[in-house]
Amino acid sequence: KPIHLLDEEERKRKPNLHDLWIDIGASNRQEAEELVSLGDVVTYQVEFQQLLGDRATARGFDNKMGSFIVAEALRLLKEEGGLDPKVGVYAVATVQEEIGLRGAKTSAFTIAAQSGLCVDVNHAVDYPGVSASRYGKLDVGKGPSVMRGANANPIVFRMVRQAAEEEGIPYQVDVAPGGTGTDGNAMQINRGGMAVGILGVALRYMHTPCELLSLTDVENCAKLMAAYCRRVKPDTDFTPRLLD
Question: Domain coordinates of the chain in residue numbers?
Fold first, then answer.
């Protein structure tokens, strides 16, 4: 359980052995029993490891995976085309997000884009001990998340959602009523402001040596980012407003 999701009492005590479990990527008992048996020995492995199906574990998915998604979106735009020739796309991998969004501030100031997409990981809640009613329902393997809230421009949100639906990309809606801990928080208020969208990948066990995600979610997040870029035009109006 990531430290972000521990309540005050949980932070004061160490977990008992009988409260622990090992996530091997299985989605049901049958899958698990086909792979492991009672008495099997286990140990930590912090290198990248693919598990059952499309699930993988490693340390540092937060947020090396975001950098990969941005690079993959650029590759898709280059190889598949569809970008308006009058629209420029910048790709940025920022530093020092965890200590104040510092890289995002300088990058957003330098580029001064009209719109930007931020990519980060989100807390998955599809495992024991985490409350979906408290943290929101996000599951591994059900598609990238699209943020809706004060940190996300509503026009960008609609465009991203429309792109997902038109291209058959599964997605989940993540809700944040205020600011977020992502680079999107800095991008939104830099210079005269930027129309920001925030994409995410559901991640289990954030900030641990065994973060877990779906590689299909990663692939679909890159596709969704590229699909949004193709829909941006030189005259796109990002002014928040009611639409029919």
Answer: 3-231
Which CATH architecture does the domain made up of 3-231 adopt? 3-Layer(aba) Sandwich (3.40)
The DSSP element (H or E) to which 225 belongs, if any, is: helix 215-231
pTM higher than 0.70, yes or no? Answer: yes
Which one of the listed residues 33, 34, 97, 98 is annotated catalytic? 97
Question: Are the CB atoms for 205 and 25 separated by under 8 Å?
Answer: no
Query: How far apart are the C-alpha atoms of 109 and 71, rounded to whole Å?
Result: 21
Choose among 52, 117, 54: nearest CA to 90: 117
> Which residue in 91, 114, 94, 90 sits closest to 106, CA to CA?
94
Calpha distance 241→238 (Å, rounded): 9
Sheet with 195-203: strands ordered across = 115-123, 195-203, 145-149, 172-176
Catalytic residue at 97? yes
Could you read off the pLDDT of 9-31 as tens digits, one per residue? Answer: 888 888 888 888 888 888 889 99
